Inverse folding.
């Protein structure tokens, strides 16, 4: 087991910078998730830690040792690939033992490690099968098994669940969480799915265009996003954003007016000395934070466009009078249908405010 | 059902169009079989004979007497087997290098390999003969029969395609596990290329088996004749034994045909697997 | 970086292994170019000449005088163009039928088509010659030059593979829209097969362009000589003009080579596309 | 527009029956979703309605006309394929107009229809592009456009969203709902995703192994499933099932005892004259219906295994004392962690009871 540290790591493909000076620390035994939209550099970053991509400048350390020039195999890591990358012509057992055999590992020890990994993942009955005889979930498990067999100091996961269907994804997600608790090994996990990040991570690293947007515990990011990007990225359905304008800015709060919403005004408990009257701001409200009419600080009349009733939860896709689409999440609410008028309220304590550059105003 | 009715009409129309062509094209094969059972003059008989006669074994016996055909078959087998094994090894190595590594001059190498596909064999064969026979003095040797045709452009392209269509993650996974590069080639890439290798082996074996021009030029010693050359040598005799030649051709072709039809699944799968994925 | 260092070592090792082979194999091509610039006796000079001489145009002029080479080039172009167009049409139709329809005897048809791949051409060519020249009396005609080689087994398999790898949904979508079967073939399947058709056209054109044996047999009239036959006819003369033959070979090959290298991207894409997907 | 009816429709491949006598009616303008696990015959059934598969026996009617022997093109339907099935060598405009052009439709009319479809789907800016220049969602929209151009009496959708990523799927789902409201045309939609079925359908048809398990409105199936299969299939996360045994069966209710749960007993308001003491039954509880300790009719002590906190909702994966895994859904609950003990309650009014054959007991 080991901590992993990145110091000002950058990566260029030719002249194009892909990673712009990333620094972060992964504590021993921590589960860190790199999350971001496609093209944000999260997979590249993981492959740099694995040693499969060169780094342009900066320093990567694993277990206190700088590994910039160390071969992947010597870094003490094991990697699980998105495509599983199982050798199709070998049985599960041969897949698990291949690396050890090729490196002349003691036969009895290889056997022991394979048995142990198979036991942890409950794939003993599959050992004699070939990958194509396995289901997607079983393949994923074998791929994880191959990583366990290496007894690494850190596991690297590259979008391991994105080739599975929705239901299996939930199941494997729970299994990976369980595995981490069981092994206690450092894990670095890359995904574009914020749900996976929320449910698995001790610490989430949100990346965009090769830069870290925010790092922190899942609910920290959810409750207290640093900027509009993180606010929109974390949480499902997405946070709703409404354009607004500063009307008045004082030492105890800011009064904003929503644009195109019939001059609706909302006092926000935000102290931002730099703001001036007339500055553009964005108001963010999570789908589950719309209150009943009159329960909040500002009422907003809407027309329901599409209503989805999922049993315990309902999602209402509604439009404001000026046509902006909003999503509202309601528990045990089954009555709204299309064209229904609906009034929701915004409570300023649960709303977020962002400046014109997308930075959070607190 | 309307669906199958419609499709049946289409099929019949296609058959009517393609059948005459197929006949035109299968007819010579039929005639080869017929000729192989006829006495030598049969092929020149003024009537067109369409059915078998009974001289097949007599033709075979004559041919074995005129030229040591069994020995020539043996030479052909040895040459084809060694040639196929060596050529698969070399083309797969070259294909691996072209698929996996970036190096200076790679586009030029690729262009040259591709370019040689356009060259007619009879254009290359004369300077090749001059070089091998005169400069290296290798006429009538096994090396001369086997080595010069070894490098096969299409084979290299085929293997390159097979390797470059393999998911890179497989090789990355092996690298992370500390597997050496040549072990990755040998234990990961080659087993995965098996369908392509099977198809390529069939193609190379057939090419060697059916090769006529090169062994004809390079082997003047009767003991180093391959089967096609032995058959060809009958044409040079004062009395050309057409029945014997046709019977020999049947003997040459039949085993290949049987083996090939037995392996056809692998061949089709391999062509598909080789060229992509 | 350790990674690139390691890969560099591998690459150098591979080069050292493959370079001698590549030389052995490119050397004849070089010699062909050298011979084409030498006087006729140069090829038999006791020293091995490795650099160009200055007789290229003289050789060309001699050859044009000995045999009407320009006319033969014209015949070759006409034959190759018509042959390629017809053969693509026929093989694509046959491939479509084999990919899309189930009919009685389909496995047999496939087996026969596959089986013919194993036949050496020199085995088929004699009965084919007998049929075309004697039975149909078509020697020295355009039809005889073009039609008999038309049906190309590999082409049929190639087109079949291309069509059967196309997603069926495309054809179902067209059916639901009421598009007739032949329009689906013509306006959906054929345009999608374009890369395969391009690669196949190149292969067929080259095969026709480089074909020697069949036109040699079937064209005895100097006016119907193709370029390779015209070149070959020089060998029959009392004084064999090797310099002229080599110069002619260069003339025959160079345009193909240039065109092919320009089209190589399409060719590789087509081979890939044809054989799967 | 037209109603679609199936009467005892069966399908065999060789001797293997795939569809076992399905009868159902789709009303004019209705949105019907066929849902079921893979291999249940839902796609085959759709292709039979489209005319792309022969039917073995039975009768299919569209708009009151029997269409068993009618060519697909003459059935007045349009189909949207899972793979989109766009012609890659044509522009979007050519894709939309291809069928009409090939059938010699009037040029001005073709033009008009293409414009209309493009306007409905807001793909006018894409008309000159080729499919490979489009994103997944745009391709899907073009595929729907090609169906609209036909001005069909009924739309058939074959898993149209399963090639899209999670976020886009939600978005396109809402768009399809909107489209149905706008066009008012009969739609038959096949999916394996119960969420799509719940959110889109006027009527869901749940299929298993070529048979209809239950038909009805989404919330009808959710609140009142006919059997254990439907109960487990509809709803996410899945309903929890606990094995039980009848202790006593009376005219007003049934007393059951959970197996391996420390003899925990629960009275159920179920009147099932056939049941006898000792009969095996299964108790079903939806993840959101577990109550706080003491709030229901029976308390169940659990140990939390994995806790997923998604912000507004938390999912607790817990085990009973005897090791059965259960899922609990909680709103705004963020405190449970692994190894926490937890007591939940079952309220008999919200629980479901199934007999040994999986049939619902009411």
């Amino acid at each position: 087991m080991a901590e992993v540290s990145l110091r000002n790591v950058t990566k260029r493909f030719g002249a194009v910078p892909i990673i712009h000076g990333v620094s972060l620390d992964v504590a021993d035994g921590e589960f860190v998730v790199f999350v971001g939209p496609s093209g944000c550099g999260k997979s590249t970053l993981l492959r740099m830690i694995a040693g499969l991509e060169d780094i342009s400048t900066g320093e990567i350390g694993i277990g206190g040792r700088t590994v910039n020039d160390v071969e992947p195999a010597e870094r003490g890591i094991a990697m699980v690939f998105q495509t599983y990358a199982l050798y199709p012509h070998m049985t599960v057992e041969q897949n698990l033992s291949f690396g050890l055999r090729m490196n002349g590992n003691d036969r009895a020890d290889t056997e022991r490690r394979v048995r142990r990994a198979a036991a942890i993942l409950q794939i003993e009955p599959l050992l004699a099968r070939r990958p194509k005889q396995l289901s997607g979930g079983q393949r994923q498990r074998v791929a994880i098994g191959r990583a366990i067999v290496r007894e690494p100091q850190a596991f690297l996961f590259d979008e391991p669940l994105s080739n599975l269907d929705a239901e299996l994804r939930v199941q494997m997600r729970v299994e990976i969480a369980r595995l981490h608790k069981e092994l206690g090994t450092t894990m670095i996990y890359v995904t574009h799915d914020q749900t996976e990040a929320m449910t698995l991570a001790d610490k989430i690293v949100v990346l965009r265009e090769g830069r870290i947007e925010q790092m922190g515990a899942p609910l920290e990011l959810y409750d207290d996003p640093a900027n509009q990007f993180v606010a929109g990225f974390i949480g499902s359905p997405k946070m709703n954003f409404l354009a607004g304008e500063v009307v008045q800015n004082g030492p105890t709060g800011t009064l904003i007016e929503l644009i195109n919403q019939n001059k609706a005004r909302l006092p926000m408990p935000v102290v931002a000395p730099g703001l001036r009257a007339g500055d553009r701001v964005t108001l963010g409200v999570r789908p589950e934070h719309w209150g009943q009419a009159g329960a909040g600080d500002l009422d907003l009349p809407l027309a329901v466009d599409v209503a989805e009733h999922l049993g315990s939860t309902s999602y209402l896709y509604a439009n404001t009078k000026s046509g902006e689409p909003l999503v509202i999440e309601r528990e045990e609410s089954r009555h709204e249908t299309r064209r229904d008028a609906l009034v929701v309220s915004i409570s300023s304590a649960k709303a977020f405010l962002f400046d014109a550059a997308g930075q959070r105003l607190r | 059902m309307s669906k199958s009715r419609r499709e049946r009409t289409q099929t019949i129309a296609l058959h009517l169009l393609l059948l005459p062509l197929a006949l035109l094209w299968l007819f010579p094969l039929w005639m080869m079989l017929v000729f192989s059972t006829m006495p030598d003059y049969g092929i020149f008989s003024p009537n067109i004979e369409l059915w078998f006669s009974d001289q097949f074994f007599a033709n075979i016996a004559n041919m074995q007497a005129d030229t040591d055909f069994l020995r020539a078959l043996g030479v052909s087998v040895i040459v084809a087997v060694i040639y196929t094994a060596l050529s698969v090894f070399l083309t797969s190595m070259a294909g691996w290098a072209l698929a996996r590594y970036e190096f200076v001059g790679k586009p030029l190498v690729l262009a040259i390999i591709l370019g040689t596909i356009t060259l007619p064999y009879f254009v290359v064969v004369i300077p090749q003969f001059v070089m091998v026979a005169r400069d290296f003095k290798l006429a009538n040797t096994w090396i001369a029969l086997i080595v010069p045709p070894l490098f096969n452009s299409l084979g290299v392209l085929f293997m390159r395609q097979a390797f470059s269509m393999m998911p890179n993650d497989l090789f990355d996974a092996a690298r992370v596990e500390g597997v050496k590069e040549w072990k990755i080639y040998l234990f990961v890439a080659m087993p995965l290329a098996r369908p392509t290798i099977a198809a390529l082996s069939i193609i190379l074996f057939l090419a060697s088996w059916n090769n006529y021009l090169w062994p004809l030029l390079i082997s003047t010693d009767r003991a180093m004749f391959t089967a096609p050359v032995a058959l060809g040598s009958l044409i040079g005799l004062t009395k050309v034994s057409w029945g014997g030649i046709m019977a020999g051709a049947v003997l040459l072709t039949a085993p290949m045909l049987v083996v090939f039809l037995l392996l056809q699944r692998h061949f089709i799968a391999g062509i598909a697997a080789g060229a992509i994925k």
Remarks:
- The longest helix of chain D spans residues 166-183.
